[in-house]
């Protein structure tokens, strides 16, 4: 028998190990199925370590004190919340995987305040039953100039519900170059089919004219549908009709003009790279019957689908039976209200919202943040931290090809590949998401909050230590 096989034969049976760990009061308090799962997981990891030659000390791995400690740590990992805060050092401001727009402090406070009992479907002045989105609708109308508004749980739902309510099984005309697919397999032709409306495509991939829409209108046409191609760009020999042309055509032919704006720029803001991003208010002013957009992108609120436009259209959408299935909950309503109030307080210029604060950081501010991070890492053994120029992205289907100049700290750690270092940062207690660039890890400071610098430094130190402890 080989030495390795001899070591593996000395591993105690799972039942015996369970009996040992149940002597510990804190572990005995865990549910039996959870304890069994954790114990088996620890046994499998320790067995793999012995088989790989990473350890030969069976007693240290499976002795009562050591094994109980390993089970305790494993149980803590299993019970740890997945949906918790991270440090975003990727330079991607609207990172889909990290929850898109970070909420403002006011929006976080509003959600916390509404977490128990809260005003949702009651009028506090009269005590009578009320529509849950009335406050949101009033703010949206004020901010966009629309006659009416409503809100659902995301923009995909807003699109599906609006098409379902307004098409009534008839056709929607869409430009061939706007049949987009966004993340998660959300494809406009599939959504249109699911809504029950027929899709009539017009124009070519790069050039579509108002006359193309006009020629396609029949008695089956319910609406003209425009989709903001926010997650890609067609450049060169291109043409698309102005919104005013489509709105006028729709009115003259007795159909509706619906715009899925997606990214949710409420009004123009003076910050790069968004100077020419189309806005909700501009679309309403151009004559759109309905405009749909996201709450968690350029609006900077929680996940939501906002629908604004003519009262008759919004009433149809709001009264559709499907509405109840996609309406938002109280936490989203509370944080969305706080976000819209931030826009209301800033009729011009940048609203006091984290995304716009990050976009508005100048070179001096970025230099100072990067220098602070690099200085904090100075002295860590085997670590080289250098301030470098870099480019981030707006991300998440909102002008993704428009880069954002930034500053980053480039990390190189002796004996640790960029992949392994990034993995250790991501798995740490204070999870840090970074970007890999060649043979180094970049910590882009544009997407790091000022109060996150110290936790970021602690996470890097812990990741470096963990790398050095590995065989």
Give a structural overview.
The structure is a single chain. The protein has 471 residues and is α/β, with parallel strands linked by helices. It folds into 3 domains: 3-79, no CATH class; 87-96 and 358-469, Alpha-Beta Complex (Aspartate Aminotransferase, domain 1), CATH 3.90.1150.180; 104-349, Aspartate Aminotransferase, domain 2, CATH 3.40.640. It has helices at 3-9, 14-21, 25-28, 32-51, 58-62, 64-79, 105-113, 134-144, 155-167, 188-195, 210-216, 243-252, 280-285, 311-319, 323-326, 330-345, 354-359, 363-377, 418-427, 453-469, and strands spanning 87-88, 148-152, 171-175, 181-182, 186-187, 198-202, 221-227, 256-262, 290-294, 305-309, 383-393, 403-413, 432-433, 435-437, 440-444. The strands form 4 sheets. Strands 2-10-9-8-7-3-6 form a 7-stranded mixed β-sheet, with helices on both faces. Strands 11-12-15-14 form a 4-stranded antiparallel β-sheet. The protein has a two-stranded parallel ribbon with strand order 1-13. Helix 18 runs parallel beside helix 20. It is globular and about 85 Å long.
Short summary:
This protein is α/β, with parallel strands linked by helices and 471 residues long. It has helices at 3-9, 14-21, 25-28, 32-51, 58-62, 64-79, 105-113, 134-144, 155-167, 188-195, 210-216, 243-252, 280-285, 311-319, 323-326, 330-345, 354-359, 363-377, 418-427, 453-469; strands spanning 87-88, 148-152, 171-175, 181-182, 186-187, 198-202, 221-227, 256-262, 290-294, 305-309, 383-393, 403-413, 432-433, 435-437, 440-444. The strands form four sheets. The protein has a seven-stranded mixed β-sheet with strand order 2-10-9-8-7-3-6, sandwiched between helices.
